[in-house]
Amino acid sequence: MSAAGLGELQTQIVGCRACPRLVAWRERVAREKRAAFAAETYWGRPIAGFGDPGARVLLLGLAPAAHGANRTGRVFTGDRSGDFLFAALHRTGYANQPASVRAGDGLVLRGAWITAAVRCAPPANRPTPAERDRCLPFAVRELELLESVRVIVCLGAFAWDAALRLLAASGAVLPRPRPRFGHGAETTPAGGPVLLGCFHPSQQNTFTGRLTADMIDGVLARARELAGLRRAGAPPSA
Description:
Blueprint: H1 3-14, H2 20-32, E1 50-51, E2 57-61, H3 69-72, H4 80-91, E3 112-116, H5 129-145, E4 151-155, H6 157-169, E5 186-187, E6 194-198, H7 203-208, H8 213-227
């Protein structure tokens, strides 16, 4: 792991203006704001990953939320999806606290790194294939720098597809036929981390019960098992 390399990558990500549609949208949202956050200064720039540089588990989401990460400057921070995810990370031993509303509020991740396939908030939460592909080199470099990653948890079908593209671009050999996304799906490309599928913790999924706390906890516990991570306070394996 290279802390200096991750810092350099963050600078490159934050300064990116490669996708005109995304630049225009993220900056418009940052100017117009949501009424509940009218007094806040929005981040309004691309979002870098964050977490434990020695992480064995990488969580990959879709893109920043317009009034979540695009406001707070940290992926999955400041929206309902993040509330659900951080609570699960705390229950399963990856996070030191069950909630996070802003960067610098004390949240620390252990053994996990969180990032997104697309680094800017997209209109209607739907990036185009071209926008996804322009962001891919950032993810490739990120994975290179996170040398200890053994498992990628894909939060949703978009992230699953992006992870397959990421591993192919990183030199891994994908199984054939192409692995299909599903909650709890697993695949192990030759020369790459294990991929685990998890329904995205969106309000649409969590409010309807398509994704429950037990379901996401199960995936995160499985990721811990595959990565060989021992929970703090647990006895060593025999």
